[in-house]
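Many introductory courses stop at the sequence. We go one step further.
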Amino acid sequence: MGLAQIKMPQLGESVTEGTVDHWLKNEGDFVKRDEPLVEVVTDKVNAEIPSPFEGKLVKITAAQGETVQVGTVIAQIEVADAPSKGAQATKAQPEAATAAPAVAAPPAREPSEAPGPAPEVAAGGGGDGRARLSPAVRKLAAEHGLDPATLRGTGLGGRVTRDDVLAAVGGQATTAAPAAPAPPKTPAAPAPVQVDGKREELVKLSVMRRSIAEHMVRSLATSPHAWTLQEVDVTNLVRYRESEKEGFKARHGVALTYIPFVVQIVCDAIKQYPWLNSTWSDEGVILKRYINMGIAVSIPDGLIVPVLKDADQRGFTDLVRSINDLVERARTKQLKPDDVSGGTFTLNNTGSTGSVASQPIINQPQAAILTTESIVRRPVIVDDGIAVRHMMNMCLSFDHRIIDGMMAGQFLGFIKKGLEAWTAASIRL
């Protein structure tokens, strides 16, 4: 017999912590391998985590509602055989010492705490601190006699920036005064929320809603958002889908929505304008030579963005099947960590809510996000006459550090042209 350690998984790149939303098993329960064990929430996903082992759940070390760092032990399962290579386990001890001590977890962030653009990481941590410094920042630190390993970075991934060095230099000048520094002030606790019980109701934030709120604020604080809109005549596409959707479902067993058509054309546009598929860093812009398309999915608790890997390499039928699969698993909490990681561009179908124009917030650390709005029949001028057409708006939010208005407009124009000129021959099988 042995004890297998269950750790908080990393549910998406750049995710450093997760919150235990609900335990699906209790201490003393028998758990099968791959059976759902716990629901975990981050700012990227709400997922049921399956048990990697089969055995008796002997200890839960992270309570419901508790936020812990990735890699923290959250439970222990007593297994009959030693866990497979690479799994975390401990040899069973006498009864009085079977449970390993619980790992202390950091408290969940409160709304009053200002979220930063990235987790705070010491520049010298992990042995790769110097590799995180640009030559200019390293030179500036050397000129002022500063050890970069002692600085706290505010850049992407905790990277030390020029502003961090200058802030430290200013701090040195301030503390050089002979007077002893004043003791740090304890921040005043926020005043309790006053609610009129007869006319108002205080609804406690769910873990997912709090995580989404923090992620949205962090995104706006990280990159300067700009946005642009273009309208598209999708009459040809609407007519094709209406004529084919029943037959397609009969042949393939899945619904034919507009999203796969848009994904295929957006992938073509990204290949023409690769800066839309990039990430900002202090050293430069990182262009992604692969296209992992995030598909925003609305669920009762909020929004999840599963990722369609290598979207540009898929045939049309594969796109339809894969997108339907991701949406279904997102809504039934069956997404796996790999399903929400590695996104390079995000598409959001706000038209499903009746929206005709919107300004989406960028899914960090990506460079842009596109929304497709409601398809509305209205009269438009065609040549010298007026005709009733199916019209749709597309809205693009982009990181203005990377992309300028002209490129954003050209990118949208490429997609507009592809959708308006669409025919059955446009499908890549």
